[in-house]
Amino acid sequence: MTTDSRPTGEVPEPPTRPRLTREYLATAALALIDAHGLRKFSMRKLGTAVGFDPMAVYRHYDDQEALFDGVAEAMFDEIDVDTLPWDGTWQELVREYCLRLRDTLLRHPHAVQVFATRPVRSPAAIDAGVKMLSELQADGIPPAQALRLTRCLREFTVGHALAIAVTKLGAERRSRKPEPGSPDYNLLAEAADATTLDDHFEPGLTALLEGFAHPTS
Amino acid sequence: MTTDSRPTGEVPEPPTRPRLTREYLATAALALIDAHGLRKFSMRKLGTAVGFDPMAVYRHYDDQEALFDGVAEAMFDEIDVDTLPWDGTWQELVREYCLRLRDTLLRHPHAVQVFATRPVRSPAAIDAGVKMLSELQADGIPPAQALRLTRCLREFTVGHALAIAVTKLGAERRSRKPEPGSPDYNLLAEAADATTLDDHFEPGLTALLEGFAHPTS
DNA sequence: CCTCGATGTCTACGTCGTAGACTCCAACTA
DNA sequence: TAGTTGGAGTCTACGACGTAGACATCGAGG
Fold it and tell me: pTM higher than 0.85 for the full model?
């Protein structure tokens, strides 16, 4: 990325290795996980894959946990919070946020559980949270209630992405779907054939928003 | 557990090892994960912990993935589906199911991600699914719509349990909460102090149920 | 009595996460 | 400018892990 070399007039290519940075390592780790799955990922493979010593990563991250924290932050940054519809209604805002979060997670099915198993507390994530609560507060929703709503939305979205990713990745490992007419073709199989894997997500989002906007007495 | 020894009158204890079974191994694995965390769990430790050879587990499970499938099924069985309020309204039924699922998962915070990262397809789980869809169908909800609703509820519940477990387990590893008055005491911190970690779960459940029962035109 | 399959044991292999010492070089100090 | 310092990348070592495969043991069935 930022590999502008100074004008070296003569040497064709001094093996100009771009320096290792935390951000680069995090995105490289994410790429490796995308390519080969989380189970096959290792610290040593990451070091090797970026062209350095297998142990080089430990100069920038204390351990694998810390690296995965970085991977989760890298995923969050993909949401591109700045371009959310901050000027629309709060419903549009949080809805679009959830859709983007889902799309981002599903772009990295092997890494969803890395994101889902840690609270992302990067400055970018905190800023986004604060900004969103402010927006809701400006529309008359008290911060505590706004936090409850966003927690619900976030947990639903992450849970959804995790379920989709896990189902799709494990699809070939499972037993075949029961055919109509077989004794195993029960009500559940029938209903599954009448839905797609994810056509409940947007209705669920709507239901949560409606339910919070118009609480039953 | 089932170690009733026959009345051996003389030999104090012929090393009467109870045989290894898949179910016992699964619950023992769950206990080990509960006690020491998922990262410290290993196939060898499980074999040793149950008093057999470190490699003994592989006679009953092909690999760690298969064992974890068993652990997830063991967790599902803890829900005790049979005692759900099958005679009440469908709202009471699915609500109680979600509450029990949440409680069960939070009883095993270190194992939540084992459950969350695989589709549980044991006969018990499938039976419960079919039975629930039948119940909703009897109340006039078409199976496809019922499946969408239950998927939403399940993903929200699992996402919630995962978030709570991960937050609580990682609590000491994190930076201190900002104090009121500090520059970091922003709107988010303020809202967090006005809520508990989980007081949004039941409102979220209600919102989903309401939103599905009364869809906006 | 003899075989056979299931269950548990043991050894071996390649990999992993991590610690710690080492090298090298750029930047700062005197 | 010579010397120092510290960060970045390298290398070696250690104990554990997941898994494969050969071996042993033992109860049931012919």
Answer: yes
